[in-house]
Design goal:
Elements lengths: L4 E3 L10 E5 L2 E7 L6 E3 L8 E3 L11 E2 L2 E4 L4 E4 L4 E2 L1 E2 L2 E2 L11 E7 L6 E4 L5 E2 L5 E5 L6 E10 L5 E7 L16 E5 L5 E10 L7 E10 L7 E4 L10 E7 L12
Antiparallel strand pairs: 1-2, 2-3, 3-4, 5-7, 6-9, 7-8, 10-11, 12-22, 13-21, 14-20, 15-20, 16-19, 16-21, 16-22, 17-18, 17-20
Length: about 260
C-alpha cells in the first residue's frame, strides 16, 4: 500500500518551512511555497550535479553563486569564479573570495636531508633547479609567494632575492625585474633566516605557473652563502617556497598597488 505524503499536521503549503510526513512519519525534508525554499535535515547525498542559478546555502559549506555544486567528493565549481562564505546571511570573507588563504603550491627541500650550501655571486642565479614551485592561479589572479632559507653574510653583504620564470634565471616581469628585492643586510659573519614575501597580481585564473627563486650578493668577500636542510640537531632550516591565494581587490579590504 502506498504511503500518504502530507505536510506536518496537515498545514497548507505557505511561506513557512514544514516537514513532509510519509505514512504518518516525519521525514528529514522540509518545504515551503515556491521562492521560499526547502531544507534537508541531516546529510544530503547527490550523485550527479546540483545546478544553482542563485545562492545555495549549505550548513558548514561554502555558498556558490551561479555555479555547480559537485557533491561527489564535495567539490566546488563556480562558473563565475566567485566563492562566498556566509554566517547566517552575512559574508565574512573578502567579497567573492572565500578561497583566499588557500595554499596553491608548496615546495620544501631539506626537511630531513644533508645540509646544502649555495655560494652566492654578484649575478642573479637560481639557487637550485629544484628551488621551484608550481601552482594554478586562483580566480582573483592574485597570489603571495613566500621564501625561506638560511643566509650567511660573509664579510658583511646584502642579499637580493628574485623570482624567475625559468630554471635558468630569467627575471619575472623582465626587463623591469620588479620582483628583485634586497632581502637582508647583515654585519660581518652574521647569520639570518631569510623570510621574503612577494605579492603578484594580474595572473590569468586557471593558468599554470612555475616560479624559481634566484639570489645574488652585493659582495663575495667572505663567501656569503644560502644554506638549507639538515638531518641532525643544530643544522639549517629547510628551503621553503609557498604560494597562497589572495582575494579579489576590494576597497578597504584587499588593496594592491
Amino acid at each position: 500500500m502506498a504511503n500518504d505524503v502530507r505536510l506536518q499536521e496537515g498545514h497548507p503549503v505557505d511561506e513557512n518551512l514544514r516537514p513532509l510526513k510519509i505514512g504518518g512519519e516525519t521525514s528529514s525534508i522540509e518545504i515551503s511555497k515556491i521562492d521560499y525554499g526547502a531544507r534537508v535535515r541531516g546529510n544530503l547525498e547527490i550523485t550527479g550535479n546540483n545546478e544553482t542559478t542563485g545562492s545555495s546555502q549549505c550548513s558548514g559549506l561554502a555558498i556558490l553563486e551561479e555555479g555547480i555544486v559537485g557533491h561527489t567528493g564535495v567539490a566546488f565549481d563556480s562558473l563565475t569564479g566567485k566563492y562566498i562564505v556566509r554566517n547566517n546571511g552575512a559574508e565574512f570573507s573578502v567579497s567573492n573570495s572565500a578561497y583566499a588563504g588557500m595554499i596553491l603550491g608548496y615546495r620544501c627541500i631539506g626537511e630531513d636531508a644533508a645540509p646544502v650550501v649555495y655560494t652566492l655571486t654578484t649575478s642573479m642565479v637560481t639557487i637550485h633547479a629544484d628551488a621551484t614551485v608550481r601552482f594554478i592561479a586562483p580566480p582573483s589572479g592574485n597570489v603571495e609567494v613566500n621564501f625561506q632559507a638560511h643566509y650567511y653574510g660573509g664579510n658583511g653583504a646584502t642579499v637580493t632575492l628574485g623570482i624567475s620564470d625559468n630554471a635558468t634565471y630569467s627575471a619575472l616581469s623582465a626587463p623591469s625585474a620588479q620582483y628583485e628585492k634586497v632581502s637582508f643586510d647583515v654585519s660581518r659573519f652574521d647569520d639570518a633566516i631569510l623570510n621574503q614575501n612577494w605579492v603578484i597580481t594580474g595572473l590569468t585564473a586557471n593558468d599554470t605557473y612555475n616560479y624559481w627563486i634566484g639570489a645574488k650578493t652585493s659582495s663575495t668577500s667572505g663567501s656569503p652563502t644560502i644554506k638549507y636542510g639538515g638531518d641532525s640537531a643544530g643544522e639549517n632550516v629547510p628551503l621553503i617556497i609557498k604560494v597562497t591565494a589572495l582575494p579579489f581587490a576590494v576597497t578597504n579590504f584587499a588593496e594592491y598597488g
